[in-house]
Design goal:
binds adenosine-2'-monophosphate, D-Maltodextrin-Binding Protein, domain 2, globular, 2 domains, binds calcium ion, five-stranded mixed beta sheet, alpha+beta, about 270 residues, Fructose-1,6-Bisphosphatase, Chain A, domain 1
């Protein structure tokens, strides 16, 4: 199926920023010897990618607003459209030469998520979705979430809070219950990739707390267009306000919402 002009614009911007990230990723290993170097270098890589995305998308769609990880909110003349962008999701992986990171571009129209692109430039995997038009892998293969119906068969991804992030104890409780009830837990370090892999049926379910809108926006569209369900931890549509997300198929979603709720309050 031919991609729409909107998806083509988003893909072109993601691929251009991806070339910049790939060049920088190739340099990270050389910097490991110096202690302070890598973190500063990664911040610079992050900014370079964000600048490219901002410039490309501003040119292609004049006046749209932006919400970006580094620059924050940039109001546009066009109040009905807003890009929600993470130029480098999976920063810690990037810093450690682990090739699991992504560019995430979501688009809101009148406050509703309508398009999403997640691009891993190292694996050259691009995931695209537009509301009502389905989700696709590398512009070709149509995506659908996994169909497993028993939680005990499910491979479940999550994000583990690290030093400086809140709710370590709540996470331990959730993890204990999930360890006992699933076929396995995985952790990529990139929420955008987790959501894309839910859409692709690689992971059966994903949950995480304390995310930002730019970690999730594109991935939410991917999951929904792959016939999955994405909600906050209460099962409602408040992911951006609460920072929490559960993404899976509808059957597992019905099971997972109460299980995680009970675990967190136990
Ligand atoms: P990042 O790599 O762009 O920082 C990993 O669990 C996920 O959480 C990643 O998507 C990561 O995005 C995100 N993340 C890491 N620290 C965060 C923070 N302080 N607030 C919100 N999201 C964060
Ligand atoms: Ca991020």
């Amino acid at each position: 199926m031919a991609a729409s002009p909107l998806i083509n614009v988003m893909v072109a911007a993601a691929r251009k920023a991806g070339r910049s990230l790939n060049r920088d990723f190739g340099e990270v290993e050389n910097l490991q010897v110096s202690i302070k170097g890598p973190a500063n270098f990664v911040t610079a890589a992050d900014h370079r990618a964000e600048d490219i995305l901002y410039n490309e998308l501003s040119k292609a769609r004049e006046g749209y607003g932006f919400l970006m990880e580094e620059r924050g909110e940039i109001e546009g003349k066009d109040k009905s459209h807003r890009w929600i962008i993470d130029p480098l999701d999976g920063t810690t992986n990037f810093l450690h030469s682990i090739p699991l990171f992504a560019i995430s571009i979501g688009l809101e129209r009148e406050g509703e998520l309508v398009a999403g692109v997640v691009y891993n430039p190292v694996l050259d995997e691009i995931y695209t979705a537009e509301k009502g038009k389905g989700a696709f892998y590398n512009d070709r293969r149509r995506l659908r979430v996994a169909g497993r119906r028993d939680l005990s068969d499910c491979v479940v991804a999550t994000g583990i809070p690290h030093r400086g992030r809140p709710q370590h104890e709540v996470f331990r409780k959730e993890l204990r219950v999930m360890m006992e009830n699933t076929a396995g837990i995985r952790r990529t370090g990139s929420a955008a990739i987790d959501l894309a892999w839910i859409a692709a049926g690689r992971f059966d379910a994903f949950w995480e707390r304390n995310l930002k809108a730019w970690d999730m926006a594109a991935g939410i569209v991917l999951v929904r267009e792959a016939s999955g369900v994405a909600s906050d931890l209460n099962g409602a549509d408040d992911m951006f306000a609460t920072g929490g997300i559960i993404a899976t198929n509808s059957q597992i979603h019905r099971r997972l919402v109460p299980i995680l709720k009970d675990a967190a309050s136990s």
